[in-house]
Amino acid sequence: MSDPELEKIRQQRLAQLQAQHGGGDPNQAKAQEERMQAMEEAKHSILAQALSQDARARLNTIKLSKPEKGAMVENMICRMAQMGQVNTKISEKELIQLLESLNQQMPKSTSTVKFDRRRAALDSDDDDL
C-alpha cells in the first residue's frame, strides 16, 4: 500500500471509532464535563444548606467507608430538600435516624468470608522456632 491509501484507511478507522464512542467532539465532551461539575456544585450547596456541620462530617465519613451508600443518602437528602421536606438543618441525630430507617429498608448483603485452611500448612512462620 502506498502512504496515501494507508492514511485514508487510518482516517476512516478513526472516524468510525469516534462515532462509536460518542462522536469524539471535544466541545461536546467539555460541555458534558461542565454540566457534571455544575451538578456536583449544586448538590454540595444543597447539602451545605440542609445539613448541620456534624451531620455533614458524618456523611463524609460514610462516603469514605461506603461510597455507594453515601451517594444514595446524599441524593435522598437533596430530593428531600428540593421537595421542601427539610425545614431546618438536619442534625447528626436526625441523620442517624435517617440512616437507620434506610438500613431497615435495604436488604442485607449476603457476603461471606471463606478461609482456605489448607494454605495454613504452607506458611513459613513456624520455621523460625
Automatic annotation (TrEMBL):
GO MF term set: DNA binding
InterPro entries (alphabetical): PDCD5-like, PDCD5-like_sf
GO cellular component, one term: cytosol
Domain of life: Eukaryota
Region (Disordered) residue spans: 1-42, 106-129
Chain intervals with Basic and acidic residues compositional bias: 1-10, 31-42
Pfam families xref list: dsDNA_bind
Homology family: Belongs to the PDCD5 family.
Protein name according to UniProt: Programmed cell death protein 5
Record organism: Euphydryas editha (Edith's checkerspot)
Lineage: Eukaryota, Metazoa, Ecdysozoa, Arthropoda, Hexapoda
